[in-house]
Amino acid sequence: MSTFGSSGTAPASSIAPNDCNVAQAGDDGVSSLIWSPTQNILASTNWDSGIRVWEVAEQNGQVQANPKAKANHENQAPALASCFTPDGSKIISGGCDKAVRMWQLGQNLPANGSPQQIGVHDAPVSCLGYLPSTNIVVSGGWDRKLKFWDMRSPNPVGALDMPERVYDLDVRGNLMVVATAGRQIVSYDVSGEPREYSRKESPLKYQSRCISCFTDTTGFAVGSIEGRVGIHYLQKVAGKDSFAFKCHRQESQVYSVNAICFHSHFGTFATVGSDGVVNFWDKDNKQRLKGFNAIQRPIPCANFNAQGNLFAYASSYDWSKGSQSHVPGSPNEIFVHYTAEEEIKPKGKKSGGTRR
To answer: What is the pLDDT, as a whole number, of residue 354?
Structure first.
């Protein structure tokens, strides 16, 4: 087990002084952040039931984000998860109303109408993905189900029983990985009808919090509540082995790893945690590329844009310490960090590593 390094500790409002503070970030905790795959459109879901959209522009490292559209899940039910369709024209969302909803964005934004229900679970919807080879939406729920939806029909085109409640899933190309309660991880080939590829216990000792596919789809990274990340290869890759490392720990305190975000070009990745820290990593060379100073609140979610030069992250309560630690009215903020290439590009070979 290796440790890449400790994080900074000075509290601030954002990880870097010039990060863009996104306006109208919501009235309750931010649960997901996603980027359109076709343009710099950022979307969030919130515990206040909101789905919000911003148009983001960057020039010479300066970032601006303009609010463009907003919708809500019905009955003020918290929205927990989201994904874009590959053409960027639709947002799929899910949450505590147990519904999977589709929001059609206008050609020039704002959105056209209210989100349309395209599916339902028997318990809250915790995560979503899109299967590009079959144009199917996949949803994971606390009802221990994966369900598959054709956006034109309210009935699922398929469903899979999972070993436990679904906590997170990720789809990249023809690989889908799913993390459930009980530390179970199931991977699928989704080139056609989903076919189970492997089923295993997490390499980490405590509850899984997030999971993300490698950009080359040879494996996945899983993060847990114990401040640890597991790097696991599903396929044998010459010179590379699975391993785990500690992160998001401050002296004797251990914090949850809330999100793992891979950079589309370099294959490096970011982790964010309940300690309010963002770290950039290189798994191949087993290096921490950059550690930012801690901010004042937990970071529940984050994501790189398609080009990899913008990194969005939220600053709000993440429920890692339960409802007793929630302070009503506490700030909920979203920031966009311009990511210079030298921050996220691999720095070179280290002993035991392989340069990308």
So the answer is: 36
Domain that holds residue 287: 2-117+175-320+329-344
Quote the distance between the C-alpha of residue 178 and its chain's center.
13
- CATH of residue 304's domain is 2.130.10.10
Whole-number Å distance between alpha carbons of 11 and 20: 17
Total count of domains within the chain: 1
Pull the structure tokens for residue 142: 């606390």
pLDDT value at position 6? Answer: 39
Task: Please state, in angstroms and rounded to a whole number, the distance separating the CA atoms of residues 238 and 161.
Answer: 34
Q: What is the pLDDT of residue 2?
A: 41
- Mean pLDDT for all residues in the chain: 91
Query: Which pLDDT does position 108 carry in this prediction?
Result: 65
Neighbours of 58 (CB within 10 A): 18
Whether 63 maps to a domain, the answer reads yes
Give domain status of residue 168, yes or no: no
Is residue 353, in this structure, part of any structural domain at all? no
- Tell me which residue has tokens 């994904």: 83
| Residue numbers in the chain where pLDDT is lower than 70 | 1-11, 107-113, 326, 349-356
Q: Say what the pLDDT of residue 113 is.
A: 66
- CA atoms within 13 A of residue 189's CA, in its CB half-sphere: 8
Has residue 134 been placed in a domain? Answer: no
